[in-house]
Amino acid sequence: MAVHGLGREPHPPAHDQSVTRRAIIFHGTGANPDVCWYRWLGDRLAARGFAVEIPHYPGLNVEPAETFVPHVLGRHRFDESTVLVGHSGGAALLLSLLEHLDVRVAQAILVAGYCTPPNDADEPVLQSSYDWAAISAHVADLYLVNSVTDPYGCDAEQGRAMFDHLGGTQIVRDEGHFGDVDQPFPTFPLIDRLVADLP
């Protein structure tokens, strides 16, 4: 399999390049790398020459951001050729990762992301506040993909709130949560198209 996750090492790009294009796909709350469209996207990106990681983080949105974010930052390499994709709680995690990076990544795509509690559930993945200028400074190309019919409240209003702070490109769909226990979503061609082919 051409995808990293659950302890496997990332596969090298399909063709030789002086800079390794890297994609890291973060699953949502209570999920794992084998649900939704994560593996499908990973395979698509690997075929395009990306070294792909799809880590499994059972502590996502369970552990507080103050301890969880440094743990995640220490497990991955981030550079100007890195593309980050996060879904739901994984997208919320990307806000904190971007804030605390010391480099500017190539791209971040937040799918069903949110920056404030979207419902009555506890959201330990969220910070009490964000340094929006730092987040913006650490990503060259930002996409916010939300749905008007998200059942958890990770909706277009959440996307707009992030867009108002960060700019980038907001994409509004009518596709629920883009994958859930009762919403099979095995492929996601939109995200595949959004991931930039880096030079």
From TrEMBL:
Molecular-function GO terms, alphabetical: hydrolase activity
Entry superkingdom: Bacteria
Pfam family, any one: Ser_hydrolase
SUPFAM superfamilies for this protein: alpha/beta-Hydrolases
InterPro entries, per the entry: AB_hydrolase_fold, RBBP9/YdeN
Protein name: Alpha/beta hydrolase family protein
Lineage: Bacteria, Bacillati, Actinomycetota, Actinomycetes, Micrococcales
